[in-house]
Amino acid sequence: xxxxxxxxxxxxxxxxxxxxxxxxxxSFVNAGILSGSAVNVVMPLAxxxxxxxxxxxxxxxxxxxxxxxxTAFTSYGSFWFFYxxxxxxxxxxxxxxxxxxxxxxxxxxxxxxxYMWSGTFRLNLALFLTFLFLWLAFIVLGFGSYYSxxxxxxxxxxxxxxxxxxAVYTSFGIVNNSLKPGTIPLGxxxxx
Length: 192
What we know:
Blueprint: H1 3-8, H2 12-30, H3 39-63, H4 67-91, H5 99-118, H6 125-147, H7 150-179
Helix pairs in contact: 2-3, 2-4, 2-7, 3-4, 5-6, 6-7
């Protein structure tokens, strides 16, 4: 295998799929479709696909010189490790997760996502929508956790579904467009 050709492949579809599928699964819990105990099914996916696959994607994006992709995939891959460790440590009674602290953590991720979202204005509409709904999901989930308002958590789950849909759609589009350019529309950039 020629390493130069391997480095030409776009790693983003892998990271977007890992992020999207993990987010879909967790959103079923947040939206109240699955019980809270189903979060234990999310944890292996959070480590393997949401976490590890995105960290790997981030490393390849760095190698390609894509600062945005490197920052996004490495950060959100790390988020999935953070979240999985929180759940596992809580289940093992090593820690107890205070709702207010989790709420602040999610709001901080929302603030990070807000500035990452601003980087999508010059990319494509599908990524713009992915980060817009991710920002809304983190903020709403954060306030839901901080104030213990289940309706906000449910709404955050809905925003999570929209986030996951656009992430997976973007992954699908990039893969298909690599095979035949223009096959799947990703939409124009908001700003030129």
